[in-house]
Write a structure and sequence with these properties.
Length: 146
């Protein structure tokens, strides 16, 4: 999670919300990283998870990320939870809860819904305070500018 926090800080440089994601293979090696790039590319789908998934599939040459883990600093939204399920990622580890748009336990729980085709292991709240602090600091800075 500490590595994901480092990646998240790169998002702030372009004015994006500082969320970072890593894709890790079964051997524990980081395959790809991503951070929010919505503002950078004017793309509503450029969330950290989506960027990391795209990069990982390019690197390994396979769209199926079975036996891979995604580590993300903020609970995935519905779009990202859907992408995680569709890419067959086995495990999700996230830091801060997203009480407004979280789709892995707070508002919805798409990945563990009994109707889901792919079962995903979830570990929530890893370094949650550190992840939330990074987001709060960013929001406070944005509000100062307004």
């Amino acid at each position: 999670m500490r590595a994901a926090l480092e990646v998240a800080q790169n998002a702030s440089a372009s004015g994006d919300v500082p969320v970072g994601a890593l894709i890790v293979n079964a051997a524990g090696v980081i395959v790809a990283t991503g951070h929010n790039e919505r503002e950078l590319h004017n793309d509503p789908t450029a969330h950290a998870e989506i960027i990391a998934i795209r990069r990982a599939t390019e690197i390994i040459g396979e769209w199926r990320l079975e036996n891979h883990t995604i580590v993300v600093t903020l609970e995935p939204c519905p779009m990202c939870a859907g992408a995680i399920a569709q890419s067959r990622i086995s495990t999700v580890i996230f830091g801060a809860w997203d009480e407004k748009a979280g789709a892995v336990g707070s508002v919805w729980d798409l990945l563990r819904d009994p109707r889901s085709l792919n079962k995903v292991q979830v570990r929530a709240g890893v370094l949650a305070d550190d992840c939330a602090a990074l987001l709060k600091e960013f929001i406070q800075e944005v509000r100062k500018k307004d």
